[in-house]
Prior knowledge:
Blueprint (H helix, E strand, L loop, with lengths): L5 E8 L1 E2 L5 E7 L5 E7 L2 E2 L9 E4 L2 H5 L4 E5 L5 H4 L2 H4 L7 E3 L1 H13 L8 E3 L5 E4 L2 E7 L8 E7 L2 E5 L17 H10 L3 E5 L15 H9 L6 E4 L5 H13 L3 E5 L1 H12 L9 E2 L12 E5 L9 H6 L13 E4 L8 H13 L3 E3 L14 H11 L3 E5 L1 E2 H13 L4 E2 L6 E6 L4 E5 L4 E5 L2 E4 L3 H12 L1 E8 L10 E5 L10 H13 L9 H20 L4 E8 L1
Parallel strand pairs: 2-22, 4-7, 7-8, 8-9, 13-14, 14-21, 15-18, 15-19, 16-17, 16-18, 19-20, 21-23, 28-30
Antiparallel strand pairs: 1-3, 1-24, 3-4, 5-6, 6-26, 10-11, 11-12, 12-13, 24-25, 26-27, 28-29
Amino acid sequence: MMANEELLFLPLGGAGEIGMNLNLYGYGEPGHAEWIMVDLGITFGDATHPGVDVIMPDPAYIEKHKDRLAGIVLTHAHEDHFGALPYLWERFECPVYATPFTVSVLQRKLAQEGLQDRVPIVEVPLNGKFELGPFELEMISQTHSIPEPNSIAIHTPLGTVLHTGDWKLDPDPVLGTGYNMSALRRLGDDGVLAMVCDSTNVFTTGTSGSEGDIYESLKTLVAPCKGRVVVTCFASNVARLETISKVAQACGRETVLAGRSFWRMIDSARENGYLSDVPVFHNEDMANELPSDHLLVICTGSQGESRAALSRIAAGEHPRISVSDGDTVIFSSRIIPGNEVSIGLLQNRLVRRGVKVVTDKDHFVHVSGHSAREEMVEMYQTVKPQIAIPVHGELRHLSEHARLARACQVPETVVTENGGMVRIAPGPACVIEQVPSGRLALEGNRLVPLDGELVRGRARALYNGAATVSIVVDGKGVLMSDAQITTSGLLEPDDYDFEDDVLDAAEEAVEHLSAKARRDDDQIAEAVRIAVRRYFRATFNKNPVTRVHLMRI
Ligand SMILES: [Zn+2]
Ligand SMILES: [Zn+2]
């Protein structure tokens, strides 16, 4: 070990927000660190960015240093942890490390993008150890809401960091081997320098509840149902699929799956030995073969996604599955913040059809995959880190998590948001530099800055409407024909005939320019633009996006 080497942590996504995780660990002399990346996820768009479905971290900083990026390690196969890999991998072209189930889901995802033969993937066994760049890494099995979640112990000459990934302490996770408490204890006893830890449910008291407890509760709910039963849950929650299908069997119902993403997850699960003693899942064609009281449908769309199976069922647009008076729809899921409106619309549609809607507010039908406070306390008592660095949360989560860590006798806490580079050692731990960070939007088939002109321009046109004026002038800037205007999102078809007025204003603006200004295209266009905007503001109290096409002949 050289005298001045340092250990760094740099989040470019997921610190100060829930979603699109991208964590970097660096080790080496200042300015020459070698890096590894832990997770590379996406987040989904909302109403603030119309037309944008998928958002991911801008990795420009590490892209610049990609020759010193040894590899990408994935903690688990949730979209907010690995969803950006197909879009961003080509910027790094480094190997990807993950445990078998994650590898299997990743390969299906890469195949969709035509990348399956290009990305070098290294499969790491559960609780396996491997070397990557200057780091010795150790996967530690966790429990969460997808098969094979992992914490990663990152060993360096300056100390060990435990990157928890998404976790809870579930005594009965239904599927998998459970969390590796003995490894966590061993790490704690050997000494952990820093723990970089999930903050999602820091405001939830008590414990998160066990996946295994859902079976009995769901069975009590489904058993007395007379009509069709539809249960919606996240496709990646394979344990929940197992639970629901066993509930169906116990209640004399056959299970039909609606939603393509289920089949991809089930294939990956079966490849890795999960779901081996689960009743058969039928495809949608079976829905109409079975009497209502012998059918249970598991479907996608718990967040009100418009194209998912449940939205189509609720709208009466699903080709094979319908619901009506006397049927029951169970939301075995939580509301992801931001989706309240679309979920409300969906539930109202179902109620209008006479369906009984049950959510986690009415009945115990869901547990979170993230640790609540009591589990976090147990984790701090077991791992006993010197330093706590909260991630996977908005700033309010991170700062509350830091408070909780201090209450657990953790001597140092560092709260950082995306782009804040933390020197973990040599200490004391602190943010030493702010590097550029940002967000990219998937726009058709390319990535553009989320705060760039394309996305902002679209939002402006959406909220304010748009007007385009065409002007034809000669070499001296004299109008050669009447100006023309087209608008969108500004007027009702029978609005009063305003065109003459606005075009008069545009033409006057040109005529008022000096002879010199009229020879300059930019000056004419700007004068017209200002005149048209002023007209709309005065007449309709609107500020449309205004464009001018100038032709000079
Ligand atoms: Zn997760
Ligand atoms: Zn997550």
